[in-house]
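hey so u asked for the seq, here:
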Amino acid sequence: MNNLLITATDTDAGKTIITTALRAYYQVYFPHVKTGLMKLLQTGIEGDAEFYGRFFDDAVIPLRYNTPVAPPIASEKENKSIDLATIWHQLQKLSKTCDLVLIEGIGGLGCPLTHELTIADIAGTWRLESILVVPVKLGSIGHTVANVALARQQKIKLKGIIFNCVNPCSKEDINNWTPKDLIESLTQLPVLGYFPYLERIDNLQYLAEVVAEYLYLSNP
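ran it, structure tokens below
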């Protein structure tokens, strides 16, 4: 495994936090593994680049747009192009120098990257192994099943599903909205765990420990 895409069912699923926590986990528990961090592109003046900058000084974001909307709309408004070759070359550069590159997607798998291509199209074409992040909320079962179907249509290798408590949620909420056995039966994919709601996100050591406690990941 060299490249791992952290994608989701929708925006605000917590991809950035999960990606940060995963990198912290590998840095703390597998220090011999050199990791890279990349987001395909960013829309909005402030966003994930600034969040990553609180913890890391080497996050790569090849393309940025100021307008906080879907990439093809942002690029139109700003009279800029979306050069996928730039993103691809940056990814290849990281892949040559890192044992594992964590790549944060944009929005959900169905989010448009250009007028013709979605994140799912790119993940399939670039053969990116992926983890699907799903927020714990009412409706998550259907959203999970639909996104897994899209991933299979594009021949994306999904390693599993992480459910993320983006808001405080009880064990009963988790069992009612994102039941593990039902999800695994419907998708034929492993649920890698339930990431808890965190009041504060300011310590990489703590994030690494949360991943170790709540998520089930294979060794890199």
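The domain at 3-214 is CATH 3.40.50.300 (Rossmann fold). Strands lie at 3-8, 35-39, 41-43, 63-65, 100-104, 129-135, 158-164, 191-195.
lmk if thats what u needed
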